[in-house]
Amino acid sequence: MTGILVVMMSCACNQLLRHWKRIPLVIALLIVTGVAQAQVQPVLNAQQATAGFADSDRQELRHLMQQHCVDCHANGQSEGGFAIEQLDWDLARVAVFDQWETIHDRIESGEMPPTQASELDDASRQEFVQTVATPLFAVHAHRKGTVLRRLNRQEYENTVNDLFGTNLALAAMLPEDARSHEFDNVGQSLGLSMVHLQRYLEAGNKVLDAAIASRTEAEKVETKTVWYKDTREASTHVGKSWKLLDDGYMVRFAGVGYPSGMVRGTDFGKAGYYRITVTGYAHQSDQPIVFSIGGTSFAAGSDKPIYGFYQAPSGEPTTVQLVTWIEPRYMVQIEPYGLSMSGFRRGDPIDQYQGPGLAIGEIKVEGPLVDRFPSVGHDLIFTGMGRREIPPRNPNDRTKSWYKPAFEIVSEDLEADVRRALVRVGDQLFRRPVQPETVDEMFALFQRRVDAGDSHEIALRTSVLAMMCSPQFLFLQEKLGQLDDHALASRLAYFLHRSSPDETLRQLAQQGRLVDPNVLTQQTQRMMNSDRFARFIDDFCDNWLDLRQMDFTAPDRKLFPEYDLFLRHSMPLETKAFVRHLLVKNLPIRNLVQSDFAMLNCRLAEHYGLPELKSEKIQLVKLPPDSLRGGLLSQAAILKVTANGTNTSPVVRGVWVSERLLGKTPPPPPPGVPGVEPDIRGASTLRELLAKHRDSSNCRACHAKIDPPGFALECFNPIGGFRDRYRSLGEGDRVDRVILGRKVNYRLGPPVDASGEESDGNRFANFQEFRQLLADQDEQLARAFVGKLATFASGRELGFSDRQEVQRIVDSTAETGYRARDLLMAVVKSSVFRQK
To answer: Is residue 275 assigned to a domain?
Structure first.
């Protein structure tokens, strides 16, 4: 192992130095040796795991299997891929452990052995289950605490931005994190590569560039005011699709498309927070017009972020104002929605068009806005020290636009001030008091850089960068067993705020009070009331519900012409607002699948065929008793991520329900079994195509559990709209429907059948009946929800030895209906959360 580490260190240092000539060799050594040592420990611990079954247990289990399992799993028979003759007993091997866990679960549930094959009495079943459970529990209990957990890239971005007062998009600079059991913060999947090390250096330098003041006073706020009539585009489009009014307002009658609403002259050369003010109103309309304010750039392939959607009311001009982060050289772009210029022919005089339009007047952009100068990060490093500008060799350089002053530290006791700075930075970065030997090490690095000719400020910056790349920062420091106060503060902070502990948590940890369950509960409630709790909602929903896949496929424009960016923008907002409402209002967990309310705006209400809403903002809406909506399963975001751009699959949606809501992961399909391809011509439904698939003995058992939820959801199309017939581009009946002035191209094919039968024999005729059956499984919904919360909170996969604690949490909330916030609170107070 030592030889391997030497090679790793040599390769790492060579590569780092090749790309980072300014970074000292010692930083590369600190990163690689520290991480390598941290990575070796879990391997050694894992090798100490108990092997598993005692000899007497093996004999007893063999005897029971010979009595009850040989017909299907011996003498050349291996149904389900399981044969007694090939059985392995070494539970230290992950594949063997997983196989025995499956055996345990199927015997315990009564699924095996089949009643028609063998009669296993209750006493023998209980004996078998207990004999298998004991070693499974012991092996997993030891194994689960051996994995180190690295900050994932979103946690890294949040942490350094919070600590240094920056707002940099750092996650995209780092390699994508692997996912395990739906989550991207599970330690065993968060590897470390040479690319990571290079990118951490790159990101750290970017943070310090932004945090450390490069001037002696705050940059002045610049204001740019533009009217569409003064832009280059006005000369091209006025009189065609744009109309210039006498008051100088420009009216756009067409929605998203050409020409775009780019506002030339609103870009700045520096990233930062900017205040955008837009004045406008709905022209020739008695209804408000929704429009977006976003950004655009001339750079090829650049993103086009949407900062928000707003309404321009009819009548007098109104002003919309927002503050948002804008990247360099991004211009404002304004786009109206729901406008089509229906009946207008190219070449007709625009003055004669009487349709609605969006009238835009003054567009003002101010920035960059600075709340604090110098930044939090600057003060963190330099508090107690003065700074003096180093005069340039040529005094005239100060008048140049490219000039950036260099600074020198001014101190009466340089060593003491630098050491105090290293302690301040180390305490924050390492999420616990920095060790004296670490301070000595970092000061020695500072001194070496000074001896090599660096200024004191550059040398101190180098030491700070080294700490930002240290394993003590990149990895959460958790010892086996009960978490100490500082580790508990970090776990709670990264769970609920997705960042390092704030000042309140740090003080409580330093006082040794956070291990008190009452204090822990109070802090959980405080953090849920914070603005930063929105990060939990975003990250948890993106992982658990797979909302990060919203743009993995794009709906076919011919099949779903009603899909637009306003709808796309609204979809995940509904789901995240819904989950937040469940937690904040502490609603029973059955609301996950069956609620009497929804979180909607005007676009979603229109999409769902519900009574009209006026606002573009998400709001709580009470639903009629017979509504299809209410709960996650009927939300457009969920229905989109479980479909592709053209069709739906009962299998995909059924697996989603099983994994995400019921916490049951189906086994992978047997090798060599082909998938089922939908018929987009509309000649056959997927249910008909699946029928032959389900007749296969290799597929029947799993599909009996997977398919019914998917069949129930067939009444929703790939963008979440209700349907009673499938759409197709081939066979079917023509549709007399116009969307935004254009007649639709799709046809209506076979009718939708949303009925089914669950594996336990319960039948349902439609989605509403299935939803009721699912809501009645509130204990299983609660158990699965606890599992997802606990996995996300602890950063590890739950396993066999966690089952009792999960069940204890669920049982403790049964009397009150398994309420969502109660479940989260119980997770925080559980051993799963408080121990490693």
So the answer is: yes
Q: Which domain holds residue 336?
A: 222-369
The rounded percent of the chain whose pLDDT value lies above 70 is 87
**Does residue 44 have a pLDDT over 50?**
no
In a domain, 573, yes or no: no
Would you say residue 57 has pLDDT above 90?
no
The pLDDT of residue 277 is above 80: yes
Say if residue 830 is in the same domain as residue 756.
no
122-143 vs 94-109: helix crossing angle, rounded to 10: 150
Match 């609170």 to its residue by tokens: 825
Task: Please tell me whether residues 676 and 807 are part of one structural domain.
Answer: no
The SS3 call for residue 232 is helix
- State whether residue 303 is helix, strand or coil: coil
The letter for the amino acid at 105 is D
Give burial (CB, 10 Å; 0-12/13-18/19+) of 7. exposed
Asked if residue 344 is part of any domain, the answer here is yes
Q: Report the SS3 class of residue 236.
A: helix
Pair (236, 360) in one structural domain: yes
Query: Within 13 Å, how many C-alpha atoms sit on residue 350's CB side?
Result: 16
**Which burial class, exposed, middle or buried, applies to 157 when counting CB atoms under 10 A from its CB (0-12, 13-18, 19+)?**
buried
Read off the tokens for 727: 């759409």
pLDDT tens by residue, 365-391:
999 998 899 999 999 999 999 999 888
Residues 87 and 76 in one domain: yes
Q: What total number of domains does the chain contain? A: 5
- 808 and 705 inside one domain: no
171-189 burial: b if 16+ Cβ within 10 Å, else e: beebeebeebbbbbbbbbb
Q: pLDDT-derived band of residue 311, with 50, 70 and 90 as boundaries? A: very high
Q: What angle do CA 589, 594, 599 make, to 5 degrees?
A: 95
- Per-residue pLDDT reduced to its tens digit, 389-405: 888 889 888 888 788 88
How high is the pLDDT of residue 670? 64
Whether 708 and 807 share a structural domain: no
Alpha carbons 407 and 580: distance in angstroms, whole number? 47
Contact 359, 281 (CB under 8 A): yes
Q: Rounded CA gap, 636 and 691, in Å?
A: 27
Each residue of 528-576: pLDDT tens digit? 999 999 999 999 999 999 999 999 999 999 999 999 999 999 999 999 9
Three-state secondary structure call for residue 705: helix
CA atoms of 831 and 144, how far apart (whole Å): 13
Together in a domain, 765 and 788: no
683: Cβ–Cβ under 8 A, 6 or more apart, which residues?
730, 731, 749
Max CA pair span of the chain: 96
369, 395, 421 — which closes off a domain? 369
Q: What's residue 403's pLDDT? A: 83
Work out whether strand 272-283 and strand 597-600 pair parallel, antiparallel, or are unpaired: unpaired
At 805-835, the pLDDT tens digits run: 999 999 999 999 999 999 999 999 999 999 9
Instruction: Let me know the angle formed at the C-alpha of 432 by 430 and 437, rounded to the nearest 5 degrees.
Output: 75
Which residue among 91, 110, 143 closes a domain? Answer: 143
pLDDT for 70: 64
Question: How much is the mean pLDDT over the chain?
Answer: 88
Residue 514: strand, helix, or coil: coil
Q: pLDDT by residue (tens digit) across 766-810?
A: 999 999 999 999 999 999 999 999 999 999 989 888 999 999 999
Close Cβ partners of 118 (under 8 Å, ≥ 6 residues apart): 67, 68, 69, 71
What is the per-residue burial (b if ≥16 Cβ within 10 Å, else e) of 242-251? bbbeeeebbb
Q: Residue 394's CB: how many other CB atoms inside 10 A?
A: 10
Using CA atoms, how far residue 427 sits from 200, 205, 431, 553, in Å, is 19, 20, 6, 44
Are 248 and 342 contained in the same domain? Answer: yes
The CA–CA distances, whole Å, from 316 to 63, 361, 722 equal: 86, 12, 38
